[in-house]
Design brief:
Structural class: alpha/beta
GO molecular function: ABC-type transporter activity; ATP binding; ATP hydrolysis activity; ATPase-coupled lipid transmembrane transporter activity
Keywords: ATP-binding, Membrane, Nucleotide-binding, Transmembrane, Transmembrane helix
Number of strands: 10
Number of domains: 3
Helix content: 55-70%
Protein name: Thiol reductant ABC exporter subunit CydC
Strand content: 5-15%
Distance between the termini: 58 Å
Subcellular location: Cell membrane
Largest sheet: 6 strands, mixed
Radius of gyration: 34 Å
CATH superfamily of the largest domain: ABC transporter type 1, transmembrane domain
Shape: elongated
Pfam families: ABC_membrane (PF00664), ABC_tran (PF00005)
Strand order of the largest sheet: 6-7-8-3-9-10
Order of helices and strands: HHHHHHHHHHEEEHEEHEHHHHEHEEEHH
């Protein structure tokens, strides 16, 4: 995490210098004030005090100015570093793999609270300890010059308050810090699940259990927060105790030195008040140390996202140019090889010459020791034809869709689009040619217009209506109170299941693809709606190279070719009539159900 701040190391160094000047001004201010008060008690000429009076005023001003500049510089550097971290996290999430591997509420907690841990480390965990070392060391040297035993005692006290107490606080806070990060993620997850699942929870009488889960998570987080507060209290109390003992010890040593005439009374006042001021430098350190466990746990959760291995490798020629975050070149820009590959893909795939799909010996599995989700699949989708892939649940159909849409890389075999291997080109360039309707299309809590414009931000209303007409949704949208400006609600809850599928199809059509992949488009629909949606989808997809992935048998008499997949293998292939005639096959048996 500290390495993330390396590009702004100069600014942080300047912040440490300004912090040391501010802390040094504070210590010097009390030292000069002690000398001024003690010397004034001797009733000297006013001219003998003028320099100290001016110095007191100057130190008071410099303390405030340098403290302000230190906060300005360090916070600016920390916030800019934090912005860089967030950009890296968002760039990583844009590659979809982390989004699919973490629970939504927990992911929100990682994005917000755990990312903010970087700020706590940079603002509170770096500058104060370094300032304490510089200023505390200088103060000990000064006090040692006045009185060697007093300086040594002050050094011991500063080491105890600024190192021993923080180490104990850090050790005690390590476990609660880890539990706090996990509890925060659990609370976020419980809240999100309860809010978004409220209709189903109420319908099945499970709302009380869900609310109890939120309450328990909140109680656990509160308990950990109390433990954290106790640690902060321990740090403050221990520091105050060590400060008092050290000041008393310095005072006793100084009094003995005054009696022995090895130290003047004025120097005694300066020594004692300087020792007292020195502990202000180390006072923040125990609180920082107690937070280190939470900061470390937050950093580990943050890097769990950043270090999630990609499901798709960079295209050939770009692998060696990737930045440290896997996002191409520095700052998340596409690497040179990737940009070139993207240009080649646009030329090879978007030219419209031949955008048929050709899958050969495709093998995919999700872990080295797991069975193959796809095991040697061969499929052809000729340009402009509609091909269906059917089979029971768990046959590997959705894995095939994930490969075609570049959410996963093949472990073996090839997928060619227009004669070009899709793994040799950037994922976004392939998705510009291949798009589709997923099993559960996400409808954003916005208007119909804005949901459509995700695929074509510059599309005017005429183009949007044309896409809705083709998706057989225009009449329903016209009947809505505000037409294209109608709010569809969170996750499109104001739309029926069939309307959500048609809206997702209209959005896909606006992207002007050459290949459509329809992954289980009739999932969760009733039979009547399912038949209508299939008919509309196939009609809208006419003229595209279309791959329909489904376990439903509705509308398959309208496709050109059918592949039956079971346990990751193609077990039947032919037209609807040919497969229906094979009475001993899966397809004919499924038609009878």
């Amino acid at each position: 995490m500290i390495a993330l701040a390396r590009p702004r190391g100069t600014r942080f160094a300047l912040g440490v210098l300004l912090g040391a000047l501010a802390a040094g001004s504070g210590v010097a201010l009390l030292s000069v004030a002690a000398w001024l008060i003690a010397r004034a008690a001797e009733h000297p000429p006013i001219t003998a005090l003028s320099v100290a009076v001016v110095a007191t005023r100057a130190l008071g001003v410099s303390r405030g100015v340098t403290r302000y500049l230190e906060r300005l510089v360090t916070h600016d550097a920390a916030f800019r570093t934090l912005a860089d971290v967030r950009v890296r996290v968002y760039e990583r999430l844009a590659r979809t793999e982390p989004v699919r591997r973490f629970r939504s509420g927990d992911l929100v907690s990682r994005l917000v609270s755990d990312t903010d841990a970087t700020q706590d480390l940079l603002v509170r965990g770096l500058t104060p300890p370094l300032v304490a070392v510089v200023t505390g060391g200088a103060t000990v040297v000064f006090c040692t010059v006045l009185l060697v035993p007093g300086g040594l005692l002050l050094g011991l006290g500063l080491v105890l308050a600024g190192l021993a107490v923080p180490l104990v606080a850090a050790a005690l806070g390590r476990g609660p810090g880890r539990r706090q990060a996990a509890a925060r993620g659990e609370l976020s997850t419980a809240l999100v699940d309860t809010l978004y699942g409220a209709p189903d929870l109420v319908a099945y009488g499970a709302m009380d259990r869900a609310v109890r889960r939120v309450t328990d998570a909140d109680a656990e987080l509160t308990r950990i927060a109390r433990r954290d507060a106790a640690l902060l209290g321990f740090g403050a109390g221990a520091t105050a105790l060590i400060t008092g003992l050290t000041v008393w010890g310095t005072l006793l040593l100084g009094v003995a030195a005054v009696e022995g005439e090895s130290l003047s009374a004025i120097s005694l006042a300066v020594l004692v008040l300087t020792a007292l001021a020195a502990f202000e430098v180390v006072a923040p350190l125990p609180a920082v140390a107690a937070r280190l466990g939470a900061i470390r746990a937050g950093g580990e959760r943050l890097f769990d996202v950043l270090d999630t291995p990609p499901s798709i490798a960079p295209p050939r020629g770009a692998a060696d140019s990737d930045g440290p975050d896997g996002s191409g070149g520095p700052g998340g820009e596409p690497a040179e090889g990737e940009a070139g590959a993207g240009a080649d893909t646009d030329t090879a795939l978007a030219s419209g010459a031949d955008t048929g799909l050709r899958v050969r010996s495709l093998r995919v599995r999700y872990a080295p020791h797991e069975p193959w989700a796809l095991d040697g699949v061969d499929i052809d989708v000729p340009a402009g034809r509609t091909v269906a892939v059917v089979g029971p649940s768990g046959a590997g159909k959705s894995t095939l869709a994930a490969v075609l849409l570049r959410f996963r890389d093949p472990d073996a075999g090839t997928v060619e689009l227009g004669g070009a291997d899709i793994t040799a080109h950037p994922a976004d360039a392939v998705r510009a040619v291949v798009t589709g309707v997923p099993q559960d299309p996400h409808i954003f809590a916005s208007t119909v217009r804005e949901n459509l414009r995700l695929a074509a931000p510059g599309a005017d209303d005429d183009r949007l209506w044309a896409a809705l007409e083709r998706a057989r949704l225009a009449d329903e949208v016209r009947a809505m109170p505000q037409g294209l400006s109608t709010e569809v609600g969170s996750h499109g809850l104001r739309l029926s299941g069939g309307m959500r599928q048609r809206l997702a199809l209209a959005r896909a059509l606006l992207a002007a693809p050459r290949v459509l992949v329809l992954d289980e488009p009739t999932a969760h629909l009733d039979p009547d709606t399912r038949d209508a949606v299939v008919a509309d989808l196939l009609a809208a997809a006419e003229g595209y190279s279309t791959l329909l992935i489904t376990h439903d048998m509705a509308g398959l008499d309208r496709v050109d070719d059918i592949y039956v997949v079971s346990e990751g293998r193609v077990v039947q292939h032919g037209t609807h009539e040919e497969l229906a005639a094979q009475q001993d096959g899966w397809y004919a048996a499924a038609l009878k159900v």
